[in-house]
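During the no-cost extension, the postdoctoral fellow (Dr. R.K.) reprocessed legacy sequence entries with the updated structure-token encoder. One reprocessed record is reproduced below for audit purposes.
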Amino acid sequence: MIPWFLASFWHKISCIWLGSGNSADDEISALRARNKQLEQLCQSNGVTVPAVVDGVADRSIPKPQNLKKEVNINVIRVHMGIEGAGSKQVWLNCRRAVRNNLTRAGFEYEVDDASQDPMKKAHCIQAIEHERPLFKSFKASWGAQYVLREVWSNRNEWLDKTNKDPPTTNNNSGDSDDHGGEDDGQGGEDDDDDDEGDSMDQQDHHSSRELSNEGSPRQSRKRAHALSPPDSSDSEDDSERAPPKKRAKQTA
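Re-encoded structure tokens follow.
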């Protein structure tokens, strides 16, 4: 039986070959040849090699011990292999999937994460990974959970700024990008004017650009401003996020 580390080495070679864009032609050729040899060797010995999704192995990225210190949105993008300006549209599509599924899940904005329906959260994460398989590269779905928490926080801050009610599948079809929602505030398109995208890509420093104030005012009410981290070890994740300013209660 072929050792497990040989299969792991074969997989690493595969990822390097799939993601290499700046290597010399001779190096790429050598990697291709070696990859083919290792693939045949693994198959002949009945070794199962982890599936590769766009150059990233399924469930291959372990969760860091401290999300607050070790992770931000740029790190998530690097893990997914979509960092940099050249992959921005892919990232925007991934983030849109998170926003849309958050809306469809019907989370309660008046309560914190601990009081949310666990089945809703589980189904939301499952739907995100189904629509955007790149999220499957994270063990125990911690990548999708991290981005979901950031989107939840940004959406709550947007709701405070615009004095709007939470979006639903009935009032915006679940896609804020296409309806001038919490993310762009300009024309509804996913581009460089995307407020949520800019804030997330700049390590959670939220945009101060004026947002659209369409829609009817609503009564001031307390809402949770961040989903709690996936486990208690990361409970300090949002301790540095400034709480939103309280708004005066609307009068008739």
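The first helix runs from residue 4 to 19. Residues 229 and 235 are 6 Å apart (CA to CA). The remaining legacy entries will be reprocessed before the final report is submitted.
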